Amino acid sequence: MTTRPEAGDAMLDVMMETPDGGTVKPSDFRGRKLVMFFYPKDDTPGCTTENKDFTALKHEFAAADTALLGVSKDPPAKHQKFIAKHDLAVPLASDTPAESDEDGIAEALGIWVEKNMYGKKYMGMERTTYLVAADGKIKQVWRKVKVKGHADEVLAAAKAL
Q1: Is 47 a catalytic residue?
Q2: Quick one: what percent of the chain has pLDDT higher than 90?
Q3: What are phi and psi of 55, to 5 degrees?
């Protein structure tokens, strides 16, 4: 069983693919704060709202010296369509390891969990947000996030850090 990192722990440094074919990992943001928000699936109502909310506040996060990174298991091509369709300005990354036997960052963080919908069990992303300090240490964790008002709450925490 994976240990779920908490405030005070170092953010795990796992490589993810960006929609443009590049790569990104949390340590790329050292020297400034980072908000990593993990969401279940592109183009679903809650995930679309969450991405739009963070996009709307992107400049305020930048003014607070805080980078944003949205992460899901969707492949880069799907992220490209999602970004274009909703005019998103927040960078996205795909938690899809190159090797099929390799765990992604969601598994390593313990947020790729068994879910249950209408009696059907499946594996899915637990909507979770991490505020990471400039030194790479996790400062705050929001688990089982409710989307409404979440981006504003995270912005307030980033400004206070």
Answers
A1: yes
A2: 89
A3: -60, -45
pTM over 0.90: yes
Q: Which of 63, 60, 78, 83 is nearest to 151 (CA)?
A: 60
Closest to 68 in 3D by CA, of 37, 31, 47: 37
What one-letter code names the amino acid at 109? Answer: L
Domains of the chain, start order: 32-160 (3.40.30.10)
- Is the pLDDT at 1 greater than 80, yes or no? no
3-state secondary structure of 74: coil
> If you search the block for the tokens 């069983």, which residue do you land on?
1
Confidence of residue 52 (pLDDT cuts 50, 70, 90): very high
How far is the C-alpha of 3 from the C-alpha of 118, rounded, in Å? 29
- Chain segment 18-47, per-residue pLDDT in tens: 999 999 999 999 999 999 999 999 999 999
Choosing from 47, 57, 111, 125, which is the catalytic residue? 47
Which residue in 27, 29, 38 sits closest to 4, CA to CA?
A: 38
